[in-house]
Design goal:
The chain has helices spanning 2-22, 41-50, 63-69, 85-90, 92-110, 136-149, 184-196, 207-213, 241-255, 280-296, 379-389, 406-420, 479-494, and strands at residues 27-31, 53-58, 75-80, 113-119, 157-159, 161-163, 167-169, 177-179, 201-204, 231-233, 236-238, 263-268, 309-311, 365-368, 434-437. By secondary structure, it is an alpha/beta fold. Helix 3 links the parallel strand 2 (53-58) and strand 3 (75-80). One of its GO terms (biological process) is defense response.
Length: 500
Amino acid sequence: MKERMNMGLQFLLYFLLVSHAIVAEGLAVNWGLKSSHPLPPKIVVNLLRDNGFDKVKLFEAEPGPLRALGKSGIQVMIGIPNDFLASIASSVSAAEQWVMQNVSNYISQYGVDIRYVAVGNEPFLTTYKGMYQQTTFPALQNVQAALIKAGLSRQVKVTVPLNADVYQTATGLPSGGDFRSDIHDAMLSIVSFLQDNAAPLTINIYPFLSLYADPHFPVDYAFFSGTNSPVVDGPISYSNVFEANYDTLVWALEKNGFASMPIIVGEIGWPTDGNSNANIEYARKFNQGLLNRIIQGKGTPKRPSSPDIYLFGLIDEDIKSIQPGDFERHWGLFFYDGTVKYSLSLADGQNIVPAKGVKYLDRQWCVMSPSASATDPNIPGAVNYACTYADCTSLGAGSTCNGLDLRSNYSYAFNQFYQTADQQKAACEFSNLTMITQVDPSQGKCRFEIMIDLSSREVSPPPPRNRVHPNGSGEGFHGVKKMLWRWVLVVFMMLPLFWF
């Protein structure tokens, strides 16, 4: 009898530990740093706190954001970029050095509440063709060893954020789920190691990409409001792709002996521009449905409790790679300057609120001169140059500025370059094609930006937000060093203008 009671208590303790590891508490979000004009880190941290986000994931250990997160009450996941995996995999001392500089240092000196180190970022993507397959697991082992040596392994757990393409289903149903054959052994090694170290598996799920990749994908299946054609898997009926995708992973884990493996959803969200399906309406619908699930603690048929879910992302990033698509720069819940894109209701009915204390450059824009001809032979080269060094993704097919007339289209490109170059006069001198105006050229949903002022001088108040869709975005330079480099880049950008 006494033995059975002890076993029962042990089981209850194990259940509570596992439940604590996989059940969501609060709101989590990804803070991307690929921005030409990043919001000051302190402003971003206040934005997180004002909107109830108590967990954040950084893709790399940027000093500014990490220092700002110190003593903020926000739990942090720090990423190690894929380019670092080889060196960390080959040397325990390299892992120890990384942990000392980027984990121990910020915990002890700044009071940053670091909970996870994300080793790599989707290293097993099929598009990488096995580039990181040999280094991911050794790097994971070395980082764990470094955390143990630093005395941080109980507080800080390792994980590997993986894309959902690491598992597949031969039957088209979640119950057919298993890990991809080419990485099956590597996945079992990683999952077993994570389980042995009481660490979670992190997976990124993107219903938007299912819709983007397949024009015949049922639109309603991407959201959370039900579908006329559910996927029926035995006694379970799946009404949305998120639940089906997540449970495919659960089945894959169960089949390989890891039924209780904790899971974190490391990235999930919906973009607002750069594609016809990347729009405000769909993003609001998806993210509100997702937030409702998180707030209600709703999980999936295979795992009824909600896992930690990190929304992607916090702010738009105007220098992020667009190799996957123009939409890559528009995943933010907020525009580049931290202004609200669309209303979202959080816990207790509170709506998301914008960033406070943002300073802007002067209220002026670079546009095509009325005296310039739209058929001027210099225009194609000038526009191509402007869009090479500035973000013109909102001009693409299905995007918010796609409906502009020809002259406005050119003006948008010129203004993006002008703002990215900090409104330097020479950045609006394209062979007498352009002029500076104080009249806002924005049209409907298409916003002609005014960039954030990153200098210390006092500037004019922010542009008026009387349109349906205001504007905002990201964060991420290495303090003074990166500020100096940014000015070098601006000068470099402007030099060729004198040859137009």
